[in-house]
Amino acid sequence: MDFHHKIPANKIRQVLFLLSILSMGLLLFLQMTFMLSAFLGAITLYTILRKFMHKLVFEKHWKKWVAATVLMLISFVVIVLPFTWVGYILVDKISPLFKNPAIITDTADKIQQYLNTRFGMNLLSEENITKLTSAITGFVPPLISSLASALLNTFIAYFLLWFLLINASKVEIWLKRNLPFTPDNCFKVIAEVKESVMSNAIGLPIMGAIQGIVAMIGFWIFNVSDPVLWGVVTGICSFIPFVGTMAAWIPIALLTLAANDINNGIGQIIWGLFVIGLCDNVFRMIIQKRIGDTHPLITVFGVVIGLNLFGFLGLIFGPLLISLFLLLVKIYLNEFAGSETKPIS
């Protein structure tokens, strides 16, 4: 062993110091993982409200605390209350499914009998119906608990949002100084984060709301009981990759046909295929031009990962989290690998 090449004591202290910081940071992160959706929510709301905050403070000369209070109240009414209403409807309507799984079994049996009688199809065997019932009843309790935890996360998100809005200039200056990027890439990060947030946190919910409203009108026209509930369910199903709103209106149409209400059942199928489908294509093109679009693969994996991480809110934050991850990868390649990459979303 060569004792002439000792590690400098200062380097050892630096390594130990960094290890202490990383250890404490990891411990704090593990204890605060329940706040991750609240943190993402605060960043999302700040990104949406930043422009308005700047106008009120620097152009209208409002006091910061007044502008922040007004914007937070408006966002609460426009964003939080509608989601709260949707959550209340879901909890109120799906709770009986957890208490009485026979409702699901009876409904699936009616659909299967119709398919077997009319088309000779045996899609829903007894084994499949049992699996479907257990899957739905197993999904209900986590959904209800995630909706309950969303209330706490909303409070934390608005608590964080207040300080972000009040100290907006200081936060942005600190980020620009300390982000490990060149000034050019720093502006790219800010611009693409804004685009990702607008696309995932605004574009996707707007599409879901539009499709849900159109579906609700169709359910009302064709005499579906509780059209508001099924309109909400259809809007949520619009987040499901590949299947989309068909996961809601096809079973309802089949159940209507199984009840020998042929005209309304056929009407629901036509409405779903042409009106809801056309609505999706037309408004998606408009939103792509106005706000931005999310790559389908980001939506697919984002929804799956998001539901596991955040519960109900994962429908929005899952795709957003993947978009931010891909953005960091792109910036890393531009900074250190010397390659220009195009954004995926």
The overall strand count is 0
Largest sheet: none
**What is the number of helices?**
12
The rounded distance between the terminal residues' Cα atoms is 54 Å
Q: Which structural class matches the secondary elements? A: mainly alpha
Mean pLDDT: 76
* Estimated helix fraction: over 70%
* Count of domain modules: 2
The proportion of residues in beta strands is under 5%
Cα-based radius of gyration, to the nearest Å: 25 Å
Give the uncertain stretches in residue-range form: none
Order of helices and strands: HHHHHHHHHHHH
Shape: elongated
Gist of the model:
This protein has helices at 9-31, 36-59, 64-99, 102-119, 126-166, 168-178, 183-221, 227-237, 246-258, 262-290, 296-310, 314-337.
Describe this structure in words.
The protein is an all-alpha fold and 345 residues long. The chain has two domains: 34-178, no CATH class; 181-345. Helices cover 82% and strands 0% of the residues. The protein has twelve helices and no strands. The protein has helices at residues 9-31, 36-59, 64-99, 102-119, 126-166, 168-178, 183-221, 227-237, 246-258, 262-290, 296-310, 314-337. Helix 7 packs antiparallel against helix 12. The longest helix is centred in the middle third of the chain and has 41 residues, at 126-166. The mean pLDDT is 76.
